[in-house]
Structure formats: structure tokens, C-alpha cells
Amino acid sequence: MTGDVGVLASGGCHIFSGCGFPAPGLQDFEWKPLFSIGSFDFTKPMLLAILAALVVIVFFWVAFRSPKLVPRGMQNLGELAILAVRDQILRPSLGRKGDSYLPFLVSLFFFIYIMNVMELIPLLQFPVTSRIGFVWPLVFIVYFLYLYLGVKNQGAWGYLRNMIPPGVPAPIYIILVPVELLRFFVFQPFTLGVRLFGNMFAGHLLLTIFTIATWYLLSLSVGLVYAAGSFALAIFVFLLETLVTLLQAFIFTTLTATYIASSVEPAH
Amino acid sequence: MSSGNDASTQAQKRAAAQGRAQGLDIGWTVFSYLLAGMAAYGAIGWLIGRAVHVSLLFPIGMLVGLAISLGFIIYRYGRVGPGGRPPGGEREMTGDR
């Protein structure tokens, strides 16, 4: 955090002390480099993203390094995680035929979830996905796969033709082409990425506002009542965020599964 | 008897999960259509407006785009076909789910 918010909040900046509210803002999403290699700055979100990848890799490696027919210990948890993604995300969109995409969807879901949930872990307390630069590569990977599978299964021309459902009259078809192209290549990937980023960004900002406000309002005056109210809201937002972190990972992965399904099985 | 109930509960859960996935897909596709319609025809209106020096064509284009998007959304998703699904445009859910 490069802004003054952290410094002010950690010091004696309280209400009625002549100190203004150190409102959080965009500066709370900017980080001083932990270290630099030439012109490349390594920041906390990068460290957290690597940590998230390591958590996913190590967890599944430990769970399945020597799988037993009757699962025990970590394998139980690993199987539970995989079955949850298979039954709640993959199968509803792709059916049994889509089981080959399970490793991709499991990795994607847990990588996003761990990056999100870092917002709620003390000391880490920053959702990596609230930096949009970490979201676009995920969108790019999903879209590349989406297009690749579509062209592979339907052919380039067939894929483009299938974007608009059959039975639409020819003049309407022509009218719809610019809308459909823009939806497919611009707005669909845009909404996929911005939804994840926006939710995590807003959640982190809300949590920061109420946490700092609790500290700021804390004083031996009527401010104590306000501080209690702000603390209650901070707890409420925290609980809400436990749900949002999971929900956003679920939505991103579910939409990925439906995109893959529409590439594998064209619209009828 | 209880295995029959279990199978029925499993089937209900599967149907609910399938409905959730389809709902998410349709919801965000509809939202993308609304934006894409306004952007596409707004851009066309802006380009024509720039050529003929009529700046009003930009907002008109956006409204036309919005109308086209709405019309298409109603055509594609607004009717309920057999099985409670829209009759055209969506994937047919085949295979064992």
C-alpha cells in the first residue's frame, strides 16, 4: 500500500483529534515493489498469485500422489473438491462427454478461488483478482480455448455461422451480424473479466472502508457508538465476502464450462 | 423405496445445477447483447453522422441497436418451448448429465 491510509490508520488518527478520515481509494490497490530486477518491479499481488498457484499445485499433488481405492486423509478432501466442480459446474453444462475438461476447470476454479479468498486471510488480506491485470490472462486462456474448440469441432465458417441461430430471416441475419460479432469478440470476454474484477475490487474497498472507519471512529466519545456500528458492518461485509469469493470463482468457471459446451456442441 | 427417492433427489439436484448453469449463461449473454447492440449501431450511427455532419445519428444509432438487441433477445429467449426451454438458439442439452 503506497498511500497514506495505512500510515494514518495505524497511528493515532481518530475522530475529534483534528485528523480527517483517511478514506481508502485506488491508492490501496497500488503496491510498493518488494524488490526490483532492472525495470521489473515484483509486488505483493504477484507474490500472492504465485502463492495461490503453489497452494493449488501442492494441495492436489499431496492429495493424489499415491491415490488409494478407498480414499484417506487429504485424498478425501481432494476428491470432494474435484467432485464438487464436476457435479456442480462441469456436468450440468457439458455432460459426461466433457469429463476430459475436468482438470482444466478444477485448476481454474481453485486458482481463482484461492486468489479471491486471500482477501480474507490476515496478513495476506488482498484479493489478487482486484487487480485487473491478473484477470485478463485468465479470460484470454478461456477465450483461446473457446475459439480453438469451436473452430476444431465446427470449422471456422461453421463456427461463425452457428453464432446466429438458424431460422432467422436473411435481412435480420445481416442486421444481427455486427451485434453478434461485437458481443462475441468484445462484450462477452469483457463482462467475463470485469465481473470478477469488479466484485473483488468493490468487496475489498468496502472491507477496507469499514475496517479503517472502525479504527478512526474509536474514541472515548460518541464515536465509540459509530465505531461499534462500523465494526458490525465490517463483520457483515467479511461474511458476505466469504460468499462472494466462492461465488465469483463459481460463476467464472461455470461460464467457462458453458462456453466450452457451446464450442463442442453448436446451437440448434 | 428409499433408493427411488434418492434417485429422484439426485435427478432434482442435477436439474437444478443444469438450470443454474443455463440461467447464468443466458443472463450474461443477454447483458452482452444489450451492450453489443448499442455499441455496434451507435458506432455505425456515429460514422454515418460524421460523414453527413448530423451528430444526432449517434444516439439514434444506439437506440436502434438497443431495439434490435431487445427484439433478438425476445425472439431467442422470450418464448417458452416444450420442456420449459426457449425454442431456438440455445444448445440442446444432450448426453447423460
Could you please describe the fold and organization of this structure?
- The complex is a heterodimer of chains A (268) and B (97).
- Chain A is an all-alpha fold.
- Chain A has one domain.
- Helices cover 67% and strands 2% of the residues of chain A.
- Chain A is built from eight helices and two strands; from the N terminus they run H-E-E-H-H-H-H-H-H-H.
- Chain A has helices at 5-10, 44-64, 74-94, 102-117, 136-154, 156-162, 170-217, 223-264, and strands at 35-37, 40-42.
- Chain A has a two-stranded antiparallel sheet with strand order 1-2.
- In chain A, strand 1 and strand 2 form a beta hairpin.
- Chain A is globular and about 70 Å long.
- Chain B is mostly helical and 97 residues long.
- Chain B has one domain (2-84).
- Helices cover 74% and strands 0% of the residues of chain B.
- Chain B is built from two helices and no strands.
- In chain B, helix 1 (2-52) runs antiparallel to helix 2 (57-77).
- The longest helix of chain B is centred in the N-terminal third of the chain and has 51 residues, at 2-52.
- The radius of gyration of chain B is 21 Å and the shape is rod-shaped.
- Mean pLDDT of chain B is 82; it is low at 88-97.
- The interface between A and B is large, with 40 and 36 residues.
